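User: Sequence in, structure out. Go.
Assistant: Echoing your sequence, followed by the structure tokens.
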Amino acid sequence: MTDIPGYSLLGGVNTPSDLRNLRSEDLPHLAVELRRFLIETLGRIGGHFAANLGTVELTLALHRCLNTPDDRIVWDVGHQAYPHKIITGRRAGLETIRKLGGLAPFNHRAESEYDAFGVGHSSTSISAAAGMAAAFRVQQRKRRAVAVIGDGGMTGGMAFEALNHAGHAGLDMLVVYNDNDMSISENVGGLRDHSARLVQKLGLVAPHLVRLPQDGEEAVETHLDNPGALFRTFGFTYHGPVDGHDLDALTQILDAIKDARGPQLLHVITTKGKGFEPAEADPIKYHGVTQFDPVTGAFPAKKAAGAPTYTQVFGDWLCEAAERDPRVVAITPAMREGSGLVDYARRFPQRYYDVGIAEQHAVTFAAGLACEGLKPVCAIYSTFLQRGYDQLIHDVAIQNLPVLFAIDRGGLVGADGATHHGAFDLSYLRCIPNLVVMAPSDENECRRMFATGLSLNGPSAVRYPRGNGLGLAMEPEYKPLPIGRGRIVRDARGRRRPRVALLAFGCMVQPALSAADILDAVVADMRFVKPIDAELVLELANENDLLVTLEDNARMGGAGSAVNEVLVAQHHKVQVLNLGLPDAFIEHGTREELLTQCGLDVAGILRSVQKRLRARDLDISESARKA
């Protein structure tokens, strides 16, 4: 595609080579077209939005000044990489981004030679670029390695580990520090406050000025005598700050430093949502969007309120718990909005901690709070808890500390794909001693499980999915559950054989019930992944010919494996079918599409069970004799 109506320059840019052939005076016009293309396209399809508007000029400058793809650009997280995708041959495919079979939501090595490193989680870019720079040194190749990391990503400890090592090793690499005062929420931390003071002193127009640190003039001057001192301490040569929306300034500084020896850091100041007034005014609202009016920014009228999301259920419960108990405190690694903590942060600011994109710190910080008699609730996405796994074991579980982990986005999350699915949590949690692991089947169960976890004197985890509950009336009281006890939610109504029992975990209870109506099967809501209800498992094994476990977690090592272990320990001969996520990384699509793809919708469950029932090794003679 070489021409798009209304895009005289962008229509001719299909690779960075086309960009390099343009005149310098054409670049500002190209930036306008690229930004307008983003606004119009994402207004139709939705996606990550505000962060991409903020990197238009930076993307153009990097690809103009570097020799990509031979030179490597590693984009941290990937929220800001849509402009990169557009000018590297994927403009026509942007309509498909985050859809089943379409463009990946983040950078993906298999998608393009320009995607030097696959991303999705934060704070990895400097480490990856450092590894590439070290490889070029070993191979004696003349290539450049560049990491582009936001100030949100720079709150992660891994970024500083990489700076510390790369500076010591003297690697030839460039870190572009894209400073816009935002993660998904407002950015936090001492480095953020330093940037705010710096832009104030230099008289720059920047979003940081809205939230200036509250300290005296003496403190301001002390911090700003040497603005790059921190990075110089790590061994980097500091450049900036530079206006990240000034193409002339960006290309001049990049041309000047791209071949410099040793570690270089370029500090650029940008505005998240740049060029679209509603997004500049509210970058949190416009971080990730559904369809909207590309002129006014207005979203379609909301439908009548339906069932609350599990995230909302958690947020409401937490506020109620904090009202009742002054020891309750909440911790989030930079996911206030996503984890449902907005209301809690407003109502209980002295008991709310946003620690930045620092999951390891979040978990051990919670452990420290628990040591002193508080009741910490660590609200974290399943995929991000992976980053704090050692701390969960070493700092919480070994010490048997009462930390409650509210694990959102368990299972398949949909459009954010393989890097964000909560596909492994039941497997990596259930092997940890002292930890109680629960999975709710509806909103009331969810509240009762939170209450259960908060009542314990050791660590616990409640793992719940993205999306809405069932719309049940909320019970006014939510008493703790008996530990390790499941419940039967459907009995077989006839004498059909072979007899089947579906042992469902969490959100798989509802499709299990639908399948059971056709199979006339027993359904158990197992509730606890750890400790598993061994008594209920054995009872169902004695009364049925086939046990089917259902979970939206990896089959390997998951809840179904816990059932298998109970049966093996008792030398039980009942037949078992484990249904769950396959041993593969599942790409993006809607949650419903992916569940269907994995055979975890009702039709898929029925196919698997009926196929197993047709197997010749299913012996029903024993249950027939019992009848």
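User: And one key feature?
Assistant: Residues 621-627 have pLDDT under 50 and may be disordered.
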